[in-house]
Amino acid sequence: MSASGKRALVTGGSGGIGAALCKRLARDGHYVYVHGHRNAAAAHEVVDAIHAAGGRAEAILFDVTDADASRHALEQTLEAGPIQILVNNAGLHDDAVLPGMSAAQWHRVIDVSVHGFFNATQPLLLPMIRTRWGRIVNVSSVAALMGNRGQVNYAAAKGALNSATKALALEVATRGITVNSIAPGIIETPMSAGLFDAAAIERLVPMNRAGLPEEVAGVVSFLSSDDAAYVTAQVICVSGGMA
What we know:
Elements: E1 7-10, H1 16-27, E2 31-36, H2 40-52, E3 56-61, H3 67-78, E4 85-88, H4 103-131, E5 134-139, H5 143-146, H6 152-172, E6 177-184, H7 190-193, H8 198-204, H9 213-223, E7 235-238
Parallel strand pairs: 1-2, 1-4, 2-3, 4-5, 5-6, 6-7
């Protein structure tokens, strides 16, 4: 079965990495649902850019931490047919060393990455299974593999995502569905711009540069294709050699 022309959903599709993922999947020929929540205008800008490039896309807006809202939005989307490519990209930082971290900071980060994964994935699984073809890619982080000071909450959330990836991959392996994680390192986005200066990047990254969102998108494109049909339960680093 060809992987072209599938219906794809990218959560957090309005962010720096998310926008690149949406544009690449649209360029690959898929119909892309660009998810957003607080910044609806940014999601619509990504959709407009995809349309301008000749692709197909629409915005979908809901809070991934709200189970009922997520299910309602996704059930409406499923009325047009199954989603066969899902990229769980929604995530956020709320950094503090653990002795000074509030419960709200802990729960906020866990809610988006871990509960958001469940809320976006679970409603889509049975329709995807019935097609006997699917690709699920979870966007993790090298912080889950290496740790990072001030990011115990973020490392815990992304580590849980990696473990969920491996377990879910086993559950759906016989149904033509692959489940993988990618673990980006320092990627050139507005969110990372204030976190890492040139000296820090040179010290931390063997390649001495930040990655580009398009380089992350290239890996997601591969994992969403027929060429990756035998790749599942993996955590693939896109980090310039950090991990």
